[in-house]
Protein: CarboxypepD_reg-like domain-containing protein
Organism: Pedobacter westerhofensis
Amino acid sequence: MSLNRFKKIIYSLALALPFIALSASAQTPAPVQAPARTVVSGVVTDAADKDPVPYATVLFRGTQIITKTDADGKFTLATSESHDQIQVSYVGYKTAYLPVKPGETQTVNIKLQNESENLKEVTITSNKRPAYRNKNNPAVELIRKVIENKAKNQNKNYDHVEYQQYEQMLFSLSNLSDKFKTKRIFKNYQFLFQNQDSTKIGGKNILPVFLEEKVSQNYLQKSPEKKKTIYTGDKHVNYDAKFIDTKGLSKYFERMYADVNIYESNISLMSNQFLSPIADASPTFYKFFITDTIKTSVPNLIELSFIPRNNTDLLFEGKMYVTMDGNYAVQDAYLTVNKNINLNFVRALEAKLDFEKNPDGRYHLSKTNLIVDFGINKSKGGGFTGQRTVIIKDYQINKPQPESVYEGPALSTAANAESQPDQFWTSQRTDTTLKTNLNIYKNIDTLQTIPSFKRTADLLTLFFAGYKNFGKFEVGPVNTFYSFNNVEGLRLRLGGRTTPELSKRYYFETYGAYGLKDEKWKYFLSGTYSLNNKSIYAFPQNYIRGSFQRDTKIPGQDLQFVQEDNFLLSFKRGQNNTLLYNDFYKIDYMHEFESHFSYQVIARKWTQRPGGSLYFNDFQNNTLNPVDALTTAELSLNLRYAPNEKFYQGKIYRVPIIDKFPIFTLKYTAGLKGVVGGQYNYQNIIARIDKRFYLSQLGYSDVTVEGGNTFGKVPFPLLTIHRANQTYSYQLDSYNLMNFLEFVSDHYASVNIDHSFNGFFFNKIPLVKKLKLREAISFKALFGGLREENNPNHDPSLLQFPTNEAGQARTFALGTQPYMEGSVGIGNIFKVLRVDMVKRFNYLNNPEVSEYGIRARVKFDF
């Protein structure tokens, strides 16, 4: 049995070593003519896309006469020896051998073919295949040496590091058919399309839709640990803000196409974490093979190939080149993924990492090229292709910088970053491959002047964002136009808001709604003044707003990311005929900072009246008396800190791009008796932390810890009414088997854990792994209680807890046991659906509760 090896790829950073052999004879005074020189010049290009291949290795075959191509793929190789063949190689390409004429000056252009063949584990040459083992495996011994030495081969090993970084992000519609390209709708848009070789990732026809370039100066200090990034250049296509949040797109792509650092244990791509082939645990999950020894390089290199033990896990396959100089550093790497990987919509992924030698003989990352092609159908049809190229230059080590360099935020942007002249960008695009798509800047500007494009964008905005733009005013959101519930019956609503076309300082929003069953009008009106001359929806927000709202809401249900009268939330289980009719007079001031710290000050008068089967009753003189309404005056301060937060700004709310960084929130509210009709004095404080924990191959956990306390004597509508869920959707932030208004507290603590295994177990089961399902589990616990002063069972003067239609109590205080529920779910059904079996562990004797339930959630994820 023998290993199927890649064809040899020879790669070196050594300079050419032309040697002129001079000969003289002591036996005769006659001079001997020097041999004729062989000089070979040319350009090395990619056979598929015709782009130059920089830093490819070129040598006379069988010698150490070697050179590398420059940034434009050009080379010159010379010798006085007699050689008739050159050899050209580069990571990810098949090695090429070409004949040359000895003793002549000639031009030889080389086209390298992509290494498209998947790495095969073994070729069976006998009846029995030996098992792959880590023990006594020289490839595993080598990777352990790489792991052992990886700390000293990283930036953080040096006391000081500085470098300049250029990055380009290109996103395109890809693999478009000629039929699609010639559709009537694109008659006026042919200038947008580009042709490329059909063998390249993305297919023949592509349509670039987004391009961004950034230049930054970076400083790192080891002790004390500090990092500073200053963006000196920022250039990107600009879409009309009423259609697309360009900066939000940039943040989204930045999260999907994060930096690829092979020395990190986990590499984040497409919101997933891939285990690096040189992570400490990599021998457990990868198989390694020594597939070449390259002695023509100084230092010598070992080509180390690797494949996943399970081809559906979130792992790479490919090869790396390890230096045999005692440092065991990675000099180059080529990463891709298996076609069977449990990764949605990804048709191809390819990452090339180039390293250059430091002054001390070690290596630093000098270039990364990451390409990912997406599509609904993995084998055919149109899709999307994103390519991010990062080039690092002017790399310097152990050059101390003054403390002033690190002052201020770790990431800052120069004042002229977005206004750099063309000459600045021309000097930064050192690689010719980076200059091929620059016409997109002009194309997108031209596109947005075409009326048919505006109409199409307007329609898509209505479909995805829910608003129809009419210039200075837009109507929406459309998903609230129609809804229903047991109290209001059929509810019709129409609203809208002004746009920046009316003013960049003043914004107005309004809606009107009517319930056909309760026959009551609801309405809302607000006016907002922007204090930073930016849209109030753009980050960082800084505005003051005044508003009045008369509307209904379910007690305790303050939905964060969706409208409460969203049509999809109309479908509920059990009894759901309790509502509050609310009047809100509110003034609030919001101030966000670039550091993602924000504070909000809110003053409001709140009047709430019971609706449906909900009643306010208290005992006075041993008589049950109805209470028409409660009125409170409140002053609140909300603090929030979300370091390194990224999000896409939608039309009505922000879509968070969840990452490993925590989010801290603190809310303080004071009730003021006697102020504008306020009836109660009280204070309430709530603290919360949200964080995602990545556990490498075991997936990730979303954890929320929250606690609150109410000080003062208040009726139950002013207590904490815990978030219940009576819909059939699985809600991460709610208790999915708790009923509305079931539990109230004046002090509580809770923990919510939702863990996704990303298919870690299903990937190991034959046949099942072909479905690419993913496992999920969750657990939620709520500790709380009521002091006697706030419990109507101990103080009859308080508003009594609500009862159901049978006269049974439906609202309770938590006892000595916490409320607990958990779930086991199967995700990635049809790539978008998660279904959970939820179990409620206690308080099962409360009326109208279920011990088990099935809940579903639509989740788009890679």
Q: What stands out?
A: The two ends are 38 Å apart (CA to CA). The first strand starts at residue 38 and ends at 46. The first helix runs from residue 138 to 149.
